[in-house]
Amino acid sequence: MAPHGFYNNPFVLFLCMLCLLTITACADSRWDSMRDKFSQKEPAEWLNHGGDLYNRRYASTETKISPETASKLRLKWEFYAGKDITATPAIFNGTLYFPSWNGYLYAVKASDGSLVWKQNLQKLTGLNATGFVNNVNWTVSRATPTIAGDMLIIGIYGPAVVIAVKQATGRLVWSTQLDSNPAGVVTMSGTFHMGSFYVGTSSLEEGLSIEQCCIFRGSLSKLDIKTGALLWQTFTLPDNHGERGEYAGAAIWGSSPSIDVRRNLVYVATGNLYSSPLSIRECQEQQNNQTVPTQPDQCIEPDNHSNSILAIDLDSGKIKWYRQLGGYDVWFLACNNLSTPNCPPGPNPDADFGEAPMMLSIYVNGTMRDTVTAVQKSGFAWALDRNNGSLVWATVSPIFT
After folding, report:
1. Organism's domain of life (predicted)?
2. What is the set of domains in the chain, with CATH numbers?
3. Backbone phi, then psi, for 280, in 5-degree steps?
């Protein structure tokens, strides 16, 4: 599913940077020698939501903040942004970049919190809010900006547009629409690699109706960072030709894609279905009437990439392998409304992946395995082999969610 509508806190909120009074914390997220020349800069950089190509959110060389020093953390500075800041800031060359729910994109000095520049997204882009975000009637972003050369690239939370601005000034360089669905959004923070930008699309469509739903299909796009030109776009579901009652959903909406330079792959994970064809709904109803469900799930067709981890070729956009990990899962607003019969046959767990996979190399029975690892809203965590998507291990939280 796409993330639910954002809850606006009525109180004044601040971006608070906690730091030791005598220590400046460093998060060394430098990308290795195989990464872009633009990405090889000084320490204390955080280049997208995941921090690097691996999407680990791990500051590998941080040594100054520890359980022993945590009690000494004090407020160093605060920046008033008018409304909530829910995106992880990007950090580059001593500057923090982040959007706020007041509709602005900010650049702030990391040393003292002073403003470098700010841009009103609606004025900057000429885009009007879609009106589908609860209590928000202005153009906003909720994604972490991505550092790409001398630019920032960031998605808009409706319409489904990605923009690039100059890091130094916030001046608009280009704007590219990734999906024409009226409820389309870009909530994912993208990943920059070798002159290209990779990002997924999502939608608020599933939360707008208790009638028949929907037509949006999730996708991953590759853009040229110089021009914003769309180089390829890979959809997660078969074409529904704009017809309701067919496949819809399987959004790509969380964290940032991980990129495997060695295998020339980008890894993403997807959300639940918003709708499915009649034949699939009938299949599921038949399954529900059986004492023992079939394994594997006969209602999952090969081109249904909902609740899945996908490995996609960086050059062609072709799916190299995939693993469907959620079974039949159709959810939209009607499934929360007991007064309507429109929720399709269950189960309807809404168990999408809210994050892209992390790239981890781990020892399994004494052998080093290259894996991608991700956790679902169901509480299940999965580790898959990067070569073919085969299962390395799976586990579930003690309390099923």
Report:
1. Eukaryota
2. 14-396 (2.140.10.10)
3. -75, -40
